[in-house]
Amino acid sequence: MLSAGLNQALWLGSDFLTENQGSFKEKQICAARRLKYFMQNIVWRYIVTAYHIGHNFCYIIGAQTIRFARHSRKRLVGSLVPVGRLLYKATDFILLRHIRLAARNIKNETICFIQGFPIAANRVREAFGRSVISGVKTLLLLPFIAIHRHRRAVITSLNIVAPVAAVFALVFTVQFWSGMTFALAVEYDGETLGYISDEAVYDNAANMATDRVINTDNSFEVKRVPKLTIAVVSKTDILDESAVCDKILESSGDSITEGSGLYIDGKFEGAAQSRSGLDTLLDSLLQGYCSGKGSERAEFVQNVDIVDGLYPVSSVTSIEDMRARLTEQTVVDKYYKIVKGDSPLLIAAKTDMSLAELRALNKDFDKKIFPDVEVLIQKAQPYLRVQVVRTVEYKETIDYKTVTIHDEKQYIGYSRVRKNGVEGQRRVKAEITMVDGIEHSRKILDTKVTKKPIDKEVVVGAKKINKTVSAAGDGISTGRFVWPLPSCRRISSPYGYRWGRLHAGIDISGNGVFGKPVVSADGGRVVEVNHGWGGGFGKYIIVDHGGGYRTVYAHLSSINVSTWQKVSQGQLIGRAGSTGYSTGPHLHFEIRINGRSVNPVSYLR
Fold first, then answer.
1. pLDDT value at residue 415
2. Helix runs in 92-131, H state only
3. CB-based contacts of 586, cutoff 8 Å, min separation 6
């Protein structure tokens, strides 16, 4: 490789000398190219040389490793062969030779046993040939002769079977005693009831037996201190509390019978001889509160358990008596009498109840708030209470909203319904919890609006009344009349005959109407003002609107205009009162056409 590099360098030098005739720049480019080629050639040769060296190194290492592995395997096999031979000889000495000997003996004994059948047959035949008794005797002795003939095989079999039998006996003994334990034997009234693990079991069983008895005459008593002795028994013979309780009740004599006891919240209520009858009774109590409509489930509010066992005869009752016991009222109906001044919220506060509870117990509760009316505040409850959870779907109305629109052209007190409201409707899915037939709670599961409500639009006047007394009106008549008492629109006495004579106008009255502003129903001129009795009208005003139309405002408390004064529509002219022949504060209002009174309602807006 070095010689090749040297030759390459000499070649470059010779080329440089031979090309000395060219320009110096061309010589520099040519020399650079040759130097680049020279360097690439040297690098490539180094890479190839390094590859060959690495390949040879790996080859040598791999070959030596393979040789070492083969050599090690041969030496290992050579060292293990003697060990294997030794193990085989030991196994043969300990086990295999005995197996071969046993197989050989079994083969010989089998051949001998098979060959013994012809010999035995010949002996029996010869014996019967001599005599029948001799033949029977020989036939009976054949088993003993066979045992004697094969005595070695029998002894060998016994030697093998005996240790196996001993092992089985040991296992059985260990298993038997492992299932045994120390326990207490309970002796009650001279009779052994059984075995328990400790004294606490008997105490709990005694309490359980006492609870099963409705001991009205104190005739039943359980001994609290029985005779206890230690014994070794099987674990399966140990009794639990329920079994000991049954044993105690069995020892009580003929007064014990099998039955099913009913427990409510852990308290014994009685026993029935038929469990099916008791189940039927409970089911009928649940179904009595079910409607059979929709999805519903019924369950008892208290914890109800049925326990089968032995019960005293005195605690066993009939199904009908049990029904009467479970349905008897433990809480009676309780009422509150409404007094003067009571309101729904006040009644709820007095009775310590919510409005929802009062409305659930009393239909139309809010419509019955009158003195001396009795309100149900506590409903009778049975001893065994039932809760029903029912999923229902129903339709519900949606109240419409009232939208107020202010009209600046109309005076305050003016009101007109521009569009009537329409109630909406929605479908509701709810889960209702009923306790003893009374709704206890309601959980809304889903709602869907089927009809949207339409808002009610009411136009009200927003123009303020001119309260300036000295302000002169324009006297312009519009030909339309507005409501004369803006603060009140209640007609206490309509137009028509009353007490045998014509009531020529309408009386407008309500709470707090005294002193409220009275306005001119239309523009015009005041033609008459009376500050005295006025023939029973008291203080009154008459306004002429032209065209034969006049309006009368009577029973005023004060007058704010004078005769021949011009007034505008809606202008303040006086205040409501109770002067003259009046039973209370109100405004008597009339409309006269050519001196004849007409019904004002037909002309008022």
1. 65
2. 97-130
3. 492, 507, 508, 509, 513, 555, 576, 578
On whether residue 319 sits in a domain, the answer given is: yes
Q: Locate 63 and state its tokens.
A: 């070959």
In a domain, 365, yes or no: no
Alpha-carbon distances, residue 513 vs 218, 471, 489, 495 (angstroms): 81, 25, 10, 20
> How is residue 60 written in tokens?
């040598």
- What is the DSSP secondary structure assignment for residue 98, as one 8-state letter? H
Measured in degrees and rounded to the nearest 5, phi and psi for residue 96 equal -65, -40
Provide the 8-state DSSP code for 535.
Answer: G
Q: Give domain status of residue 516, yes or no.
A: yes
Tell me: do 161 and 21 sit in the same domain.
Answer: yes
Q: How many helices (H) and strands (E) does the chain have?
A: 11, 29
Rounded Cα distance, 61 and 75, in Å: 21
**Cα–Cα distances in Å, from 469 out to 501, 573, 578?**
36, 8, 21
Which residue range forms the structural domain that includes residue 253?
A: 181-291+302-326
The domain boundary residue, chosen from 441, 464, 487: 464
Mean residue pLDDT of the chain comes to 81
**% of the chain residues with pLDDT over 70:** 88
Domain boundary among 178, 206, 240: 178
Give the CATH number of the domain where residue 431 resides: 2.20.230.10
Do 322 and 234 share a structural domain? yes
Q: What is the pLDDT of residues 45-85, one digit of tens each?
A: 888 888 888 888 888 888 888 888 888 888 887 777 787 78
All residues at 6 or more sequence positions from 406 whose CB lies less than 8 Å from its CB, including other chains: 459, 460, 461, 462
What is the CATH classification number for the domain harbouring 521?
Answer: 2.70.70.10
Confirm whether 373 is domain-assigned. Answer: no
Which residues fall within 8 angstroms of residue 265, CB to CB, at 6 or more apart?
A: 302, 303
Q: What pLDDT, in 10s, does the model give residues 441-487?
A: 888 889 999 999 999 988 877 766 554 443 457 888 888 899 999 88
CB atoms within 10 A of CB 53: 10
Based on the fold, state whether residues 161 and 284 are members of the same structural domain. Answer: no
Task: State whether residue 259 is helix, strand or coil.
Answer: strand
Q: What is the mean pLDDT of the segment spanning 14-31?
A: 58
Number of other CB atoms surrounding residue 413 within 10 Å: 21
**Which is it for strands 402-411 and 456-463: parallel, antiparallel or unpaired?**
parallel
318 and 400 part of one domain: no
pLDDT digits (tens, 9 = 90+) for 251-283: 766 666 778 888 888 888 888 888 888 899 889
Q: Please state the three-class secondary structure of 434-464 as a single string.
A: EECCEEEEEEEEEEEEEECCECEEEEEEEEC
Q: What is the rounded CA–CA span in Å between residue 56 and residue 48?
A: 12
Do 562 and 491 lie in one domain? The reply is: yes
